[in-house]
């Protein structure tokens, strides 16, 4: 940071300087959100965001450090410098954008539906779920939860701390459906064939973006140019194919 910034109480701390000085890129996420961030059996974190974060750290010449964080604490973790960037499949929403800056979207998803198989062929869209007869699960503090509250007002809603807990409710029949980001639902439904069904056509529009602190155009500029370069040179596509087309 410049002397001027320091004399101003480092109000506009430069994240890139901190990354260089510490020799590490600390990236926050909440593991369990397939295929973006998962904890492998050996304890390592893997996934789409993880591979992109590793590539970014490599280009910066620093070490990639994963910071697994509960979802409800992820923006506070960024704001208190636990991480330099949130790389966690975070939907760019106006509400969140009041607190953080987002780089350009790196992928666009939307909400999809995991169904208990007894409803297969009967519940055909989210609209059919909007009834007091149904219980819907999602994850606390996510855009999935927002969509249930907004678009499925009549259904009973149960919030869970983790993706897996919400999805298990559908498998064991305590919930009729789970509403969540399409890539997660698609993978989970494939892993639980016979025990679940899915409606994969997204019914919301959700660009996902990496989040940084407000007041740091340098970091934002780095992220956007990283995206431009990796999308142009094929490295983004290679990592995308590894996690979405296999
Ligand atoms: N896209 C959704 C949201 O922003 C869910 C993201 C969950 N991410 C995670 N790493 N668990 O609310």
Plain-language structure description:
37% of the residues lie in helices and 21% in strands. With 246 residues, it is an alpha/beta fold. Strands 10-9-11-8-12 form a five-stranded mixed beta sheet. It has a three-stranded parallel beta sheet with strand order 4-1-5. Strands 2-3 form a two-stranded antiparallel sheet. It is elongated. Bound molecules: arginine. Arginine (ARG) binds at residues 29-30, 32-33, 36-37, 71, 88-91, 142-143, 181, 208. Arginine binds at residues 29-30, 32-33, 36-37, 71, 88-91, 142-143, 181, 208.
Structure at a glance:
This protein is 37% helix and 21% strand. With 246 residues, it is an alpha/beta fold. The chain has a five-stranded mixed beta sheet.
């Amino acid at each position: 940071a410049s002397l001027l910034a320091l004399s101003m109480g480092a109000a506009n701390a430069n994240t890139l300087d901190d990354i260089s000085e510490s020799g590490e890129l600390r990236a926050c996420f909440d593991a369990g959100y397939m295929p973006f961030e998962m904890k492998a059996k050996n304890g390592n974190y893997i996934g789409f965001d993880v591979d992109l974060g590793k590539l970014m750290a490599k280009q910066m010449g620093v070490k990639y450090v994963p910071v697994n964080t509960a979802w409800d604490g992820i923006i506070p973790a960024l704001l208190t410098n636990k991480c330099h960037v949130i790389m966690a499949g975070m939907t760019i929403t106006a509400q969140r954008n009041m607190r953080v800056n987002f780089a350009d979207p790196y992928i666009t998803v939307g909400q999809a539906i995991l169904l208990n198989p007894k409803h297969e062929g009967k519940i055909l869209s989210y609209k059919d779920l909007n009834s007091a007869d149904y219980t819907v699960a999602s994850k606390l503090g996510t855009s999935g939860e927002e969509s249930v509250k907004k678009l499925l007002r009549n259904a009973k809603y149960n919030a869970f701390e983790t993706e897996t807990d919400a999805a298990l409710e559908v498998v064991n029949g305590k919930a009729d459906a789970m509403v969540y980001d399409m890539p997660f639902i698609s993978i989970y439904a494939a892993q639980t064939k016979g025990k679940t069904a899915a409606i994969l056509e997204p019914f919301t529009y959700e660009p996902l973006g990496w989040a940084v602190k407000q007041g740091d155009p340098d970091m934002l500029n780095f992220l956007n140019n990283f995206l431009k370069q990796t999308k142009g040179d094929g490295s983004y596509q290679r990592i995308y194919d590894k996690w979405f087309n296999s």
